[in-house]
Specification:
Order of helices and strands: EEHHHEHEHEEHEHHHHEE
Number of strands: 9
Radius of gyration: 17 Å
Number of helices: 10
Largest sheet: 7 strands, mixed
Strand order of the largest sheet: 5-4-3-6-7-9-8
Oligomer: single chain
Structural class: alpha/beta
Shape: globular
Length: about 250
């Protein structure tokens, strides 16, 4: 890798080697109030979106599923009862603060024993080939430095026929909804400053959404990484989209 290689961190351009550390700093800062801010920013709708994402995994008893960038454990908490004691749910996150909060939340729900926790990098997953029936990733892909490498890493660890489900902010289809959404999301840094005392982290999160590839472009990136049957579902007119694909069997 060239030392001069650069990437985006929100609207800023930074050396590639710095991005992961900067993103880690953002999530260390917001971890304690992450769920509160999710409810405020989505007006509670993120819970319904995550439920739909879990349904798309077609998880069943005995399956092995990874919740990548699993944060505070929302998807893992829904997946664990579906795969049951014969299955496996692994919550993977690169950020130790988010992992700690996820572990505590699942402990409070009484299901921590049903979930394994691994600190790991999406671009170089520490699992064997052909291991998981499905991989979920909710609101995490846009924070990855090399999305193509992460998708290739996910493809490697999926079993043949396994599914990837990506829930992520995207692009509203209707121009009026897009305008209203932009106005609403512009308030997030101010709300973040009030709730968490951290304006800059939420400024980055808003910018990272705008820098994330739109629906069709992300579909192409997934196809180029080797996934087949790639398609997406727009939610809230495309403010959020769920992309799915499978590993060729």
């Amino acid at each position: 890798m060239s030392q001069s290689e650069e990437t985006h961190f929100g609207f800023k351009t930074v050396p590639v080697a710095e991005k992961a550390g900067r993103v880690a700093g953002v999530f260390r800062s917001v971890a304690a109030r992450y769920d509160v801010m999710n409810d405020l920013m989505s007006l509670g709708s993120h819970r319904l979106m995550k439920r739909f994402a879990v349904e798309l995994t077609c998880a069943r008893a005995g399956d092995s599923i990874m919740d990548l960038a699993g944060g505070t454990g929302d998807l893992a908490a829904r997946l664990a009862p579906l795969v049951g004691p014969a299955g496996q749910v692994v919550l993977v996150d690169i950020n130790e603060s988010m992992l700690a909060i996820g572990r505590q939340r699942l402990h409070d729900k009484g299901i921590v024993s049903m979930v394994s926790f691994v600190q790991g990098d999406a671009e170089d997953l520490p699992f064997p080939d052909d291991h998981f029936n499905a991989v979920t990733m909710a609101f995490g892909l846009r924070n990855v430095t090399h999305q193509d490498k992460a998708l290739s890493s996910i493809l490697r660890v999926l079993k043949p026929g396994g599914r990837i489900i990506i829930l992520e902010f995207s692009r509203p289809v209707n121009p009026r909804i897009k305008q209203a959404y932009n106005a609403f999301s512009s308030l997030w840094p101010k709300v973040g400053a009030l709730i968490t005392g951290d304006r800059d982290s939420y400024k980055y999160l808003v910018e990272s959404i705008k820098m994330h590839p739109p629906q069709e472009e992300l579909s192409s990136i997934m196809t180029d990484a080797g996934f087949c049957s790639v398609r997406f579902h727009n939610l809230l007119n495309g403010i959020v989209a769920i992309h799915q694909g499978t590993k060729d069997s």
